[in-house]
Structures are given as structure tokens and as C-alpha cells.
Fold:
Amino acid sequence: MLIDFFLHLKDHKLPVSTKELLTLLEGLQANVCGHSIDDFYVFSRACLVKDETLYDRFDQAFGSYFKGVTEIPGLEVDLPEEWLRAMMKRHLTPEQKAALEKLGWDKLMEEFKKRLEEQKGRHQGGSKWVGSGGSSPFGNSGYHPEGIRVGGPSAGNRTAVKVWEQREYRNLDDTVELGTRNIKVALRRLRRFARSGAAEELDLDGTIAATARNAGWLDLMMRPERHNSIKVLMFFDVGGSMDDHVKICEELFSACRTEFKHLEYYYFHNCVYDWVWKDSHLRHKERIPTLDVIHRYGADYKLIFVGDATMSPYEILHQRGAIDYMNEEPGAVWLRRLFDAYPGAAWLNPEPERLWEYRHSIRIVRDLAGERMYPLTLDGLGRAIRQLSRSQRHA
Structure:
């Protein structure tokens, strides 16, 4: 079993061994992974690939070998209830999706108000009224290129420009153990960036050598101590599409809490507006004005945003464009204020850099950040730290 797959990986220059294949087969026999091709992909990569730099090569080999396969044959399938519900949703072809009209911000809000006044009952699968599973600009669990999600879950398209409900976000856990090799290497780079100094500490080796030279008379030797002197102000995007990146953000947050003595952090969703928060559970009660943050922390702080910058362009460029409340000033105004207040700034984006040019909102935020956006990878973090270090020297 899987001999051809094993040889296929070798043909793609992957250093897989017979022992690793046997480990994979033992795991399958013990039902370690599920029956889906996604479960098998994750498990087989864990067994066969020991170097993260080979992940892309493995993905290409896996994709070409299992093209068109959706599950491992021979296993009974129990469809989850949410899958059955999803099958009931209305499915649109790419041509039908392209034909749906984008109303524009002003017209969208005007039509929403009008339909709320006219509608008298619940609707399912339609193209006009506030409902579910259809192609109307208003509702949930359907599809429209620009709409307002009202009640219920998202269908996963992430095209809503406003959500008409109270949304709950989670805090990042600062006690998460750094479990990936890349983040551990990044931690060393953070340490190098964060530590500088002039205070003194005992040089034990030098003291021993000097005492020996003095025939046993104690001669204390001191040396400069490297200490943490960098001040960091971090803003973390939480909720929505950032739920896909919680693990790596928590690992980065843990690393920063460990390394930076002077660290201040706040949360926002999609784009920063006139208020941010420290505790997602209390974000509706304990709002912190963004201007207060700017006034509280001086320009010597290094500003670091962590977010995917993936949202409707309206959320950045329009008054009242925020997805879950009515902001008086566009997000772009607040981003400019923050970047003007803190010359040493960087934006870390967990989305793959190859996708940035295809997402309008990322291009907008990148321009506002003065091209100081970097991928949340080892290389990207290194580039961001070098840029922040240069801004420190210039200051």
C-alpha cells in the first residue's frame, strides 16, 4: 500500500525513507488520521517530511499524485450535520456570481434601509429580500460580491462589507508554548533586536583569569550587560479571517511577551478606528480611544501591526465603513495618524505574500504603511526587524 506514492515522492527529490513509510502505514492501521484526503495530507506530511523547507515540494508532489481524490477508499463516511446543511444552500456558477451587481456603498446602505422597512417575513434562497442561502445583498449563508450579513453564520466567502450583529472575539493567549522551529528562530532575532545596553555585570571567566594571574588575590572583572531597552506598541487584528491565523499569532505574542520588557498591546478588528481594546470579552464596555493610545506612548515606541489586512476596501476608505459599527472617520485616517506618530513601524501579515497583489484592501494598507508590510514568516520577520533597527539608528 502506498508504494507508488512513496516512489512518486522520491521522483520529486524528497528524502523519504522506508522507515518513515512504515510509520505512516502503522498510523493508518491504528486509525490515527481520518478518512478525508485533507487528514491524510496532514498526517503523511508529518510522517514523511522532517524539514519545513521541503513543504512546498511535498505539496506539489502530493497534489499531482492525488489529483481528484477526495477521500481514502474503503472507509465509511459519516457526514457532519453542518455539511448536510451546507448542501442545502444555493450554489451559484462563476458566471452567475460575476453577473451579480455591486451596488456601491451609498446605494447599498440606502437599499438595506428600504428593504428593512418593506419586508414583513422570513425569506430563503432569494435574490432581493433579507434572508438566507440566496444571492441577495442582505442576509447570511449565501453569496453576493458586496453585501451586509444579517444574523446567522457566514457562508465562508468573506465578501460582506458590514455585519449587522454583535460579534465576539477572543484574546490571544500569551502562555502558548513556542512549538514551531521557525518561531524559535524568530525569537532569537527578536532577542537580538530587543537587547542593547551599557549596564555592567560580573564577568565570571574574566574574574577567574584575573584572580589566577594575581596569585589568588580576588580581582573582580565587570563587563557591559546587554539589556532590553526597546519599547514596542503592538496592535493585533482578531476575529473574522484572522481566526485562520490564531496559532501563529499566539506564538508571536508569546515570544514578544517574553522578550520585550516594555511591551504594550491592543486589539482591533480588520482596521483601526477611533477605539481599540485590551480584553476582547469586555470590548463593548472598556473601549480605549485610539487618540489616548497615541498620547500615552511617545514616538520612541516601535509600532507593529499584526493582521491580514483582508477586508472590504470600504472599511478603510469610507466613513461608517467599519463592519460592525458606524465610525465617524475612515480607517485610513486613523492608520495615517498612527504611522505619522510612530516613525519606526512595520505591518506583519500572516497571509502569503504571493496573494497580496490580488487583494485590494492589502494593497491599500500596504500603501498607507509606506510599503512597510512584511509576511509573518522567518524571512519577513527578519526584514521587518532590520527596517525597525534602521529607524532606531536614524532616530
In short: The first helix runs from residue 3 to 11. The radius of gyration is 26 Å. Residues 193 and 385 are 7 Å apart (CA to CA).
